[in-house]
Known about the structure:
There is one protein chain. By secondary structure, the chain is mainly α. The protein has a domain at 8-169: Ribonuclease Inhibitor (Leucine-rich repeat, LRR (right-handed beta-alpha superhelix), Alpha-Beta Horseshoe), CATH 3.80.10. Helix content is 79%, strand content 2%. It is built from 16 helices and seven strands. It has a seven-stranded parallel sheet. Helix 3 (146-153) links the parallel strand 6 and strand 7 (159-160). Helix 7 runs parallel beside helix 10 (351-377), helix 8 (287-303) packs across helix 11 (388-561) and helix 14 (686-810) packs antiparallel against helix 15. Residues 391-649, 682-712, 752-985 form a coiled coil. Its main location: cytoplasm. Belongs to the LRRCC1 family.
Amino acid sequence: MAAVCATSGELSLMDKGIKSLAELPLSSELHTLNLHCNLIARIESLDHLLNLQHLDLSSNRIHWIEGLSCLANLRTLNLACNLITKVEGLLHLRGPDYKINHIELHSNCVNNVNHLLQCLSGLQYLANLTLEKNGKSNPVCAKRGYREILLQALPQLTILDGKNIFGEPINLMEPNSSDLKCLEDLLSCLVSSYTDEEETDVNLPIMTPRIDQVLAQFRQRTKILPCTTTSSSTEIMSSSEPEKIKFDNDSRIKKLEEQISHLLQKVTNSSKADVTMKAKKETDFTSDSGSESGKENRKATKRSKLPNYRKSTLSTKLRSQRGKLSAREQEKDFIKPKFQESHIKEQESSSPASEIASLKIVGKTPKKLSGLKSQMKTLNVDSGIQEEFTYRALIQELDQEREKRWKAEQAEKKLSESIKQLQNQAKEEKDIQSVAVYTTDRLRELILRERNAKTRLQIDIRQVKEEAEKLGKELERSKQKEEDQHKALQTLEEALSKLESQKAHQQASEMKRIQTAELKASAAEREVQLLRISLQQQKEKVEQVHELLRLREQEHRKELETRVTLHGSEFQEALSKEVAREEQRHKDHIKELQEKRHLLNQKYKDLEDEFRIALTIEAKRFSEVKEGFDRLTAELAEHKQVLLQSQQKEKQSASLIHELTSVVKEQKDKITEVIKSKQDIVYNLKSQIQTLENMVEEDQQKTIQLELLKQEKSKLISQVTAQESVIDGLKAERKIWGEELAQQGAALAQDRGKMEAKIEVLTSETEALKKQNESLNDALQIKSKIVEDQTETIRKLKEASQNRDEQIRKLREDNIEMQKRLQVQLQEKDAQLDNLLEKLERQNERKEELKHQLQEKDAELNDIKESYSVMNKKWQDKGGLLSKLEAQVKQMKENFDIREQQLREERDKSLQAQKIMMEKLHSVDDAFRRQHESTIAAHQAELLQLANEKQKQVATANEKVYQVEEEMRQLLQETAKNKKTMEEKIKWLTVALSDIQQGL
């Protein structure tokens, strides 16, 4: 690689894993250096590269710009795809001594516009700056009006981000600087060859060592260029220079052409001066005689190169050769203008061909000199035989000059062929470079996509871990709840054991019900006997119906015998009438279908109008959904407060119920003790005891109902706890949603703006398409009407043809010739019909194509609707959670109301049964009251005492409940105070944190 640098001055080390520039032994003759896609972190060890013009350090790990102060000849700098945040290193490139004009900084981390302007304001020759390319930009590019700010602050800029001042994209095709160097070498070669030709003798052959060196450089460059084209993806961008460099290169080429033309003028002037000096020394003969004698002598020397031994024979030979020389002179005069015309055409060709033209002219100058010398020397033909030797020398010089001209022409051809090959190679190299740039850009985009996907996956993994931790906590909570539920189940099992004892009492009551059911069964048997009697009566009626059917069958057979046959004339006439009716019905049906088709078309138009209205309605609904979402959030907070209050009330009621159950148990124990103590008295008063037992059973039923209510309350409490856990989860999710919404707010706002713009564009497109569809539908309706008219004409033609066929059948024998004519006419009409049918088929195909287009447009509209529905679904899912919670609460309320209704119905039923039993008991009690009034009075006195005791116990229980309520109020007040203190602490912490952040 060092050898390459020494010859061409170019070095490419793409993707070599280089970590620092200090490791590279760079030669001071380098003018292009490509270090794309390496691991370089600093710009260093470049102070000795004084001739460096192109530097490519893209796709590295550079954080800041430095070490460029000694690169005075640097023109293009490529630092794309790095980690640069500040551009302070460009301050060292200020002033007229530095000629940097192209900088690439896209895909970096430049944030501050003012800092960038401070660092770039002193770069006088800066004409091309790229901060954004192919979607890869800097954070500065996202700011509003950054392009206008840069163009106003940097007037020397002509191209920014691949666009000119007017925002039009520009494809920069830079001429290679090495071509200009080669042209300069050719110019120096021409100057040196001119001086060498003046010094060397004319007889020597042309030697062009410098031209051969230049050709060798061109050939080496063609070998090196293919390896450098594939070196880096950004090499084209680094070699691309602005219009100012183009102007400089064009001016340099013009200067070279002027220098070449100046040299040619010098050569022609010097040749003319030599000719005039020689003409003055010769005799004063006329130009015509001199030219003729010179040509004759040239011809003589060419024809007779051997020496003349006798002077006497020379005059005769010269006379004989004069005629031949005159013919040779005419041929030479005819060749000269052609050569001059070809020389003029080659001078008017392109700039690279100007070098070849200069070489041609340099080869021509000795020809003119030799021709003029020969013309001047031929004037002295009559002087004598001594001048023959000079003629021979001149002829030899002419031959040498012709050989030189032939060699120069061949060199010109070789140079033109080599230039064409170089141009073709340059085109191929540009194509390869464009392909390489495209592939590298694609690879960069793929890498960036993979990086983005990787970051997204990492974020998803973090979220999944957080969710797993939350789920673990919820599992622990659920386990605790399960343990609590197991305990509740144990209590329920105990309650079930009590219920079984109560069921035994219920079975006794069921036995009584069975007795009543048996009585009902005996009544049902009686009803069955009555039904059997009615069945026998119905059987007799059925037999009578069978006899009637037999009689009717006989009558039907008689009617069948009197009916008309199928092949009769009357039957056929009836059939023909019915067929005509059916045909008319069919025609009417076709007309109805056509009317339905028109109605359907109108409905289709109405549906389109409704679809337009629906779009506007959906937009309004979207706004209403947003407002509803905000309202629901406010209502959620209110419902949560109500939930907390209801939970507190339920806790208080639960404590009261527990105390009441304990009181009821104590009362039950006391009642059992009283019953045991008074069993002796109860034997004599069975009727009263039965009444008391009934009352006790009712009390037991009520206690059972109370226990059932307790169980339901326990279930409700468990459900409430579950809902609390769900609410806590929803709170956590709400916090997460709040964070996500805060993060996605800006992105959604941007996306919303883009989507709104897209929706506006799409709505305009849909409106245009609908208008087109309406116009097409109108055209279809017109065409369908035309088709209907044509079908009517076809029907008329068919009817006419049928009439004609009937006439032809009658007059076949008389009108055979007329039949042939009619057949010809029918064939023509059939051809017309075929054409019309083909037109119908084409129109149907067009209709199908239009339907396909409509389907495609509908598919596009469906895609838009799907994207719109996706946005709606996100909001609907969030509203769905709230609606689910509301539905659950409503279901709980409904279940509770249903249970209350069931209990009330059971209570009403029990009250009715109690009333019936009480009526029976009153009838029985009336008989025993008279006998046992004294005993009842004593028993009532005892009951009054028990009631007083119960009232006292209830009063004590109420006092305890009041005390508990006061304690709960105190606890609530304390919790409210604690909440206030915590809120004040949190506010103080937030204020402190905000102050700390502002200080940072």
